[in-house]
Amino acid sequence: FRKRCGGPLCRCVLRLDEKVVIITGGTSGLGLAVAEQLASRGASIIFTARDLDKGLAIQESLRARTKNPKIFYEYLDLNNFVSIHKFVSQVNQLCSKVDLLINNAGVFFHPPKETVDKFDVTFQTNYLGHFLLTELLVPVLADQSRVIFLSSAAHFLAKSLDLKSECIFDEGAIGTSARFQSYAKAKLCLLLYSKTFAHRHKDRGIRVYSVDPGSVETPIYRHFPFLQNPILKAIQKPIRFIVIRSPFQGAQTVLHCALSPKLGSETGLYYA
């Protein structure tokens, strides 16, 4: 039953030996699963995270498991625009072009926090940071490259969208509803941006895909209230084991959008 809930596997056997891939949030969960699969196909992988020690450890682990030495960890904090600029400068030193950008990093139900750029942490991590990163990488994106945004069905539940207010840190937004709405609105913004980005760069052959991987067992749920309570967590465990996808299962739609030649004529669409 869990295998059925996990959905179909990506059957594409395409090799990526001459391709350069960037994955944000690549040290755990979905990002790590995608990084390993693409590295095993020979791609040069640049994955990001904020934890330096963990990033370097994952770098060596992936190199050993995939027998691919072209795997590089780079520090990136999406909650800091200066960090994003520095990362892009580093990318420009490492490679002359990027063939695949996977905007994967994100937070869910994060406690209210103001970033160094004076924005809400959930909104900046999930939307503003990836917006800036993608725009800065446009010059280095290869013609016929692909850009994937990790989306969520939560965007359907965004009640309203006022960017002037959404960007502002609200110290009082501590309730369950407020924290969920911050996430939902960020994902809605990301989806809308992906469509406009696809339209702007269609003539270059850049293909853009928004992917909802479903409910995947990753650290993104670490702040989820129902999992903070040990009793509720224990009650949910058998249900989650059945219906929640593993990172490998959740990665399949991402891999399909990254690899399938059948999607070469599609752009700006939503996949789930």
From TrEMBL:
UniProt keyword terms in alphabetical order: Oxidoreductase
Cited InterPro entries: NAD(P)-bd_dom_sf (IPR036291), SDR_fam (IPR002347)
GO molecular function, one term: oxidoreductase activity
Coiled-coil zones: none
UniProt name for this protein: Uncharacterized protein
